[in-house]
Amino acid sequence: MTNGIIGRFYKQREPEKREHPEAIELSLAGAVPLAPARQSPSGEAPVSVEEAPLGPDMVSERVNLHRYLLDRINLGILDTLDNEEIATEIRPLVKDYIRRNNFPLNAKEINDLIRDITDEMLGLGPIEPLLTDDTIADILINGHDSVYVERGGRLESTAVRFKDEDHLLRVINKIVSAVGRRVDESTPMVDARLKDGSRVNVAIRPISVDGPLVSIRKFTRKPLTMERLVEYGAMANAMRVLLSAAVRGKVSMVISGGTGSGKTTLLNALSSQISPKERLITIEDAAELQLQQPHVGRLETRPPTLDGRNEIRQRELLKNALRMRPDRIIVGEVRGDEAFDMLQAMNTGHEGSMTTIHANTPRDAVGRLEQMVGMAGMPMSQLSIRSQISSAITIIVQVQRLSDGSRKIVSISEITGMEGEVVQMQEIMKFKKTGTDDDGRIRGEFRATGIRPRFIEEFAELGIEIPAMIFDPGKPLQSGPLEP
């Protein structure tokens, strides 16, 4: 080896004593070579997810190789090297080990092995190739020997395996410690995020009976645009025109939907319509929004310490955000008493603020908001709470994950005020299911109801034009690839 890193990279060998810092032990065993759509540092061909896992003998030898490398590598220098440098340095060591033990591996298998070890050193081991595969939306780990992914709206099993439960726990701790969080028997559940903003949820024993459960919701490196969502059939072009105008016109809105329905994806896309001149403050449990504006302040909650102190909740962050001179406040998801402060912000000069909520219909979203505001403990009557909701929020966008795995906007509704003690709404656009095709894909069409929203009456003064034809109920609204 002649690249000049040898002295830093290799340990000075001690004849009688070897010490391996346990805090940074590299658990390589079980990191199966199965990189889907993954390029090696040298540009070699990707390895398929469907590759068979290593047999017990090879897993055992991977452990021995791991120990062999630890004896020879200066772990303290790893953070200063990139993947290519590490791969270059360990290649002769791996080849030497294979030669000494007479393993029948060809050049491609050796390169796969080196690539997996490099991934483990700097990344998250067996799941690293899944994280770099842009066709995967979710990674679901059910214990050390069962890993699923969602691709194209459908779940599929992979050959990814961890060596054992301890190996999986080491990877989990690497994830949560990177964002200053912890997971142990006293705190067996945690929300975290990866460096790219992907959302991570972890549950371990004792609440997870059969071993650690990890759910990773991936986000694309480049957030989807409104135009791309139209091309993918997630909304009609008329919906894009209406919602884009509503954001530019500073109409406050709530995106409602179930788990995995695409709420955050839509929120990211909508945020692209906000003027770069505005100051935005985002508030999230785990930061994942990918706003592209230059003037963005990102706030994130903090869990309590071991003694139950120093927790910072979304409500405290919302109160603080109001002192930061925001033009708009964007809450990743409202789920508790912070709903009261969110409505207050929308009602006191922060028009155009947005949030998401877990609910199955627009009417359910209003009901959930009412319950959450009540959790704030403020002396407000039910009528007063509903009045706050009707004056603060103008649009509720309902998104849904359909049975075929596709995600669509199924309703856009406008809150028009109060009638008696009831919050009044009118549906502007919707998705109407018409059946399924031979492959089980949902068939349907986007339709306007014929109702023109009241809020567009003010848009002319702002120079925002909305074509009247998008509200025509006589024909389906266009979706799919946009016409030039």
TrEMBL record:
Any Pfam family matching the protein: T2SSE
GO MF: ATP hydrolysis activity
Start and end residues of each Bacterial type II secretion system protein E domain: 123-407
Ranges annotated as spanning the membrane: none
InterPro entries recorded: P-loop_NTPase, T2SS/T4SS_dom, T4SS_GSP_E_ATPase
Any coiled-coil regions, as ranges: none
UniProt family annotation: Belongs to the GSP E family.
Name of the protein: Pilus assembly protein CpaF
Species of provenance: Rhizobium mongolense subsp. loessense
